[in-house]
Specification:
By secondary structure, the protein is α/β, with parallel strands linked by helices. Helix content is about 25%, strand content about 20%. Strands 1, 2, 3, 5, 6, 8, 9, 10, 11, 12 and 13 form an 11-stranded mixed beta sheet that branches. It is globular, with a radius of gyration of 17 Å. The protein starts with a strand and ends with a strand. About 50% of the residues are buried.
């Protein structure tokens, strides 16, 4: 069963008070910015952030505030009230990227109701469509309500080699294939050493298959159905997206 949506936030069933984490590859930052814009347009106070690092391009979409102590900056609430959304960083890295904040800070902001929703990018993929998490990843805030492991469908057919996927040596431990197939993406997204790594037992899980415009519809659906079949205990919906054209298709068992 499938259903079409015009808003990413509706397709993911985002609710007030949630802490949402995006992990994996293939479009996390784009999804975070899309959700922030949609929910801010709804009148919500939206905090976006990262526990790793992201490019400074987020500054073109919302104000960027920097942590200077242990507590959230006082101007955070005002920035969200004025702009609808704001990005909280830990400063600027030597590579020019915005540094992450302590995950405890994001949980605190959610629990204190400083923001109506918190959206965090919880690992990095160097802009590659598919990845396996490193030993230190992901960095998920405590009490995360929804985790969306992300993969780009443009990974299909790519060799599992450096430059095509992130951490190919770890991806090869999750599959016997030398190239990315629908089964490979499903294995990676649903593995406890892949997209499900560190996801708390009580968290909702909705994988995102991004760039569905790069694959035939039936092939994209094949990936989605394989994901659902592998983890019926935890995964009850998969979202196929084309963030550029704002197309969102929810796939149910």
């Amino acid at each position: 069963m499938t259903g079409d949506f015009s808003l990413l936030s509706d397709a993911l069933e985002i609710r007030r008070g949630q802490l949402v984490a995006l992990v994996g590859g293939g479009g996390k930052t784009g999804a975070m910015l899309t959700l922030s814009r949609e929910l801010a347009d709804r009148g919500w106070r939206v905090l976006a952030s990262t526990t790793t690092r992201v490019g400074q391009s987020v500054a073109t979409s919302m104000p960027v505030l920097t942590m200077t102590g242990d507590d959230p900056p006082e101007e955070l609430a005002r920035a969200m009230s004025e702009s609808g959304c704001a990005f909280l960083s830990g400063g600027l890295g030597d590579d020019g990227k915005l540094l992450g904040v302590d995950p405890w800070t994001l949980t605190t902001i959610r629990d204190r109701c400083i923001a109506d929703v918190v959206i965090v990018e919880a690992d990095g993929a160097r802009q590659l469509p598919l990845k396996a998490p490193g030993e230190h990843e992901p960095i998920l805030p405590q009490g995360v309500d929804l985790v969306s492991p992300v993969a780009g469908l443009d990974a299909l057919g790519r060799p599992i080699e450096q430059g095509y996927v992130h951490r190919p040596e770890l991806l090869r431990q999750l599959t016997d294939s030398d190239v990315v197939t629908p089964a490979v993406i499903a294995d990676v997204l649903t593995s406890d050493a892949g997209g499900m790594k560190g996801v708390p037992e009580g968290s909702e899980v909705c994988p995102i298959l991004n760039k569905m415009d790069t694959a035939p519809r039936e092939l994209a659906l094949e990936v989605a159905r394989a994901v659902l079949a592998r983890r019926p205990d935890r995964i009850h919906r998969v979202l196929m997206t084309n963030l550029h054209d704002r197309e969102y298709v929810l796939v149910l068992p």
